[in-house]
Inverse folding.
């Protein structure tokens, strides 16, 4: 681990090269499998970015699907517009800018939601972010320009293995670097004890909003990838269940544990593919899983040691 | 008296109908060690919370470095040179001893997201500087052997010590200690007194000590202010305080005789 911390740039480079190589082989792959692999990449981006908010900074957000939908709609509207005006040739070049635009609008939404609501703690913040996710969904459902209830369709299929995994690697890199810097210590300090953090000169609001905005940005990017992977999106896709799915990944992987969360994202994307027979009961299984995790392994499935040790002596 | 670093002018705070602190004035000069004592519920911690910006006084004002602190957020006050510890220990539970101190040390190091992401030379240089400062501090307070232990695995006295080190890491001009001896056994209290005296000698900062334990306060403070029911009833040297009739009444009841010298 220390080497990764020392020069994570090298690792990012390796990951990008791997993503490009994988992308070259993707044409020969069974489209079902490559589709699932892309789903995994998107899930990794979502889970790792939510982990920055829920895990490291300890601000329980249930609005990740909301930010994802903002990124999905914005980027899809951009590429659809370009397809109409400039034809399909220009699209591959416009893909990354469209994704970044989607991420940026999602980040702005994150800022607008975060600044007032991050004064709230715990359950209250969860409720506000949940409400935000629903509001966004209802807005998209009623705006004609966004296709209202029928959503957007005919979105160009631009999301490939290369883009997905380059962006997933970039997300992991950004989160890992932030966590291993003064920012990360700030996030974790705020997570552990806000009052103590502020009396050590750390501005809790600043750290919370930073984590929230960066998390929202990557959720937006993931939404853009999602839209250009499925080629049609409706508001119903980004409902509370989607947010909940990402929350389950974070809890299963272990709050604040990036590697565990990546594993959980892979596992929870693959599992429904193998368990088609019980797909109807998925949400029941998730709920039971969370209850079980909270009781048996609050530190996550893939962590060996307990994160929080109790005080040696209670004052 | 030297120029006051901290000045409370007729500070009052009311919570609804309850006047928790009433008309308290207090001055702490640079490098002074002042004790603030009083029976349970006298308002000591409330005074503390007003100084550190957690509560805003209803009336009166507080000056730190000659500047009013009204409306200034706690983290900004810390930046301007005021650090505190907590009555019930508030360490960063999921961090190591080292990271607890590092989180407080980085206060004076500002860097942007770009630097954190690019991981260039300036990033590493900045991190190294912070790390060196943390190691120095841990060594001075003989915590270096526990640097990688989880902060909460330290024994109680060690956690108190770490909280003080963490406050010191912000390089304060004024250190506020909120009942540091609470829950300690006599030998830990002894250590604590030495620690406080050591900090003063070595770093020369002003210290305001809120304490319950008479022995600790009488042993090391130059000047003591006594609160009872939110009102300052006495202020003076430990000697004067020990024979002050109002203090004796507050602590022991009206008919008691002066306290035996409680010197350590």
């Amino acid at each position: 681990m220390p080497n990764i911390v020392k020069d994570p740039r090298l690792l990012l480079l390796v990951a990008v090269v791997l993503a490009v190589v994988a992308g070259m082989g993707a044409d020969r792959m069974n489209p079902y499998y490559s589709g699932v692999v892309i789903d995994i990449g998107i899930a990794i981006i979502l889970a790792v970015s939510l982990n920055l908010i829920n895990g490291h900074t300890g601000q329980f957000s249930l609005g990740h699907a909301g930010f994802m939908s903002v990124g999905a709609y914005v980027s899809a509207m951009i590429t659809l517009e370009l397809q109409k005006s400039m034809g399909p040739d220009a699209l591959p070049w416009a893909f990354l800018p469209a994704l970044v635009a989607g991420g940026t609008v999602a980040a702005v939404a994150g800022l607008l939601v975060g600044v007032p609501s991050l004064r709230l703690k715990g359950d209250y913040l969860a409720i506000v972010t949940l409400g935000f996710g629903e509001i966004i969904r209802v807005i998209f459902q009623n705006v004609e320009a966004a296709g209202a209830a029928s959503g957007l369709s005919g979105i160009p299929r631009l999301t490939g293995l290369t883009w997905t995994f380059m962006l997933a690697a970039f997300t992991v890199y950004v989160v890992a670097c932030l966590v291993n810097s003064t920012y990360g210590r700030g996030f974790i300090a705020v997570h552990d004890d806000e009052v103590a953090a502020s009396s050590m000169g750390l501005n809790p609001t600043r750290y919370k909003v930073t984590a929230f905005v960066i998390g929202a940005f990557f959720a937006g990017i993931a939404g853009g990838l999602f839209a250009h992977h499925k080629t049609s999106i409706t508001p119903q896709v980004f409902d509370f269940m989607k947010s909940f799915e990402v929350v389950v990944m974070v809890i299963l992987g272990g709050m604040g544990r990036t590697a565990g969360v990546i594993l959980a994202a892979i596992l929870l994307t693959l599992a429904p593919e193998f368990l088609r027979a019980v797909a109807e009961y998925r949400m029941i299984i998730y709920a039971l899983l969370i209850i079980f995790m909270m009781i048996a392994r609050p530190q996550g499935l893939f962590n060996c040691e307990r994160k929080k040790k109790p005080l040696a002596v209670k004052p | 008296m030297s120029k006051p670093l901290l000045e409370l002018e007729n500070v009052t705070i009311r919570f609804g109908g309850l006047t928790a602190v009433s008309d308290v004035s207090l001055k702490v000069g640079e490098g002074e060690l002042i004790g603030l004592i009083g029976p349970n519920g006298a308002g000591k911690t409330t005074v503390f919370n007003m100084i550190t910006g957690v509560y805003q006084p209803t009336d009166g004002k507080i000056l730190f470095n000659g500047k009013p602190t009204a409306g200034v957020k706690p983290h900004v006050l810390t930046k301007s040179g005021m650090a505190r510890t907590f009555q019930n220990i508030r360490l960063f539970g999921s961090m190591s001893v080292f990271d607890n101190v590092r989180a407080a040390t980085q206060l004076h190091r500002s860097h942007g997201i770009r630097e954190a992401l690019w991981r260039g030379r300036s990033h590493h240089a900045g991190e190294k500087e912070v790390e060196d400062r943390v190691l120095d501090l841990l060594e001075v307070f003989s915590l270096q052997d526990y640097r990688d232990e989880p902060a909460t695995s330290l024994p109680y006295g060690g956690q108190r010590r770490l909280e003080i080190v963490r406050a010191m890491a912000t390089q304060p001009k004024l250190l506020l200690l909120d009942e540091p001896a609470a829950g300690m056994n006599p030998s830990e209290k002894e250590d604590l007194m030495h620690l406080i005296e050591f900090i003063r000698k070595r770093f020369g900062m002003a210290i305001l000590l809120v304490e319950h334990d008479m022995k600790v306060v009488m042993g090391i403070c130059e000047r003591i202010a006594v609160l009872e029911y939110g009102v300052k009833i006495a202020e003076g040297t430990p000697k004067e305080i020990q024979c002050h009739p109002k203090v004796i009444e507050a602590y022991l009841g009206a008919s008691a005789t002066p306290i035996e010298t409680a010197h350590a």
The two ends of chain B are 26 Å apart (CA to CA). The longest strand of chain B covers residues 4-15. Residues 1-81+172-264 of chain B form a domain with the Rossmann fold fold (CATH 3.40.50.300).
